[in-house]
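Q: what does this look like with zinc ion bound?
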Amino acid sequence: MSEKEIPCRVCDAKIRPFMTFGPMPIANGFLKKEETPGEYFFEMEVAFCEACGTFQLAEQPDAKRMFHENYAFFSSLSRHMQIHFQKYAELVKDRVLKGRKDPFVVELGSNDGIMLRHFSEAKIRHLGVEPSKNVAEAARQKGVNTISEFFDLALAKKIVAEHGHADAVICANVMCHIPDINSVAAGMAHLLQKDGVLMFEDPYLGDMFSKTSYDQIYDEHVFIFSATCVGNAFKKHGLELIDVLPQPTHGGSMRYVLAPKGSHPVSPNVPALLEKEKSLGLDRAKTWEQFKSNCEKSREDLNALLKKLKKDGKRVVGYGATSKSTTVLNYCGIGPDLIEFISDTTPIKQGKLTPGSHIPVKPYEAFAENHPDYALLFAWNHATEIFEKEGTFTSGGGKWITFVPKVGIIE
Ligand SMILES: [Zn+2]
């Protein structure tokens, strides 16, 4: 691990990585067998800044390596996520847009239009900003106005000149992807009306700590936020945290509601959560030493369980070749010797190998038509949806393996 001091991405204080997950490939870098010799790896180290409370990746690969034409993730593939974003859109309409004349909504990282379509269908002025061109095209085909650019202050100015200030700026699972958070926060502050509202949600640091869900950490997730850190990061751009709304998505997320300082009342939820974070020690470096040992224990337990099942002659396959699975497989050193294949419904991943660990990815049918003895649930954050769907697997004697919050077989 590097001993080098790095500047905190939020407040510029000097910080040091406290933990490395080892050489890590691009989480979405599914590849063909012939591409494995040139595979790209980076040292995935994490650091915590006590000055502003920000948990962050020490180094992130170049954005061009992570977001490209073949970007594999389309939000609308999950039914539960569709319902989640419909509710999110309803909340924005009710809480922010109601009573406003000809409101304007901007979503950053609008993906395939999963959330903005609810504004488009209601004939509300809207604009999506989505850097992945093929995903943006899918949104446009649904009638969702979308531009393919990276968001910063310059783009914010361009949007304001063309459409005026935004009543609501929204995003989901996007802010934690943006390394230059200050540039984006400044752009958001410029884009908003004087009484506009910014809402965004991301995986929550408190859940990651309490569940040892270290698989939230991968190349694209440069931050795992807490209310403490979000409050500090946006304060210098004139935005104030006015509410916090916990969400069940992505294994535990938090929706942060911000507005220009003094323009809206602050909900009692905000001081209550800040107090809770303090009592859990989420703002202290010592807590993250504990997280590191929890990760090491999880890694030992998962290896021990898979090796035992292998010795007992059991068939183990992975369920869901998620981005998160890349961190687990590479950090734990798990390969095709322990997991026969991983099934996934995303066509672009099928027939390829998992990044770094090189486990074959097969279509869903490979799992459904020949159930294994055990299925390792990489998509644990969709457990409810998956258990509903896979009743015949368990009724036929199949068992699920999980590693969040603890490694074990789900009985
Ligand atoms: Zn900091």
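The chain is about 35% helix and 25% strand. The longest strand covers residues 192-203.
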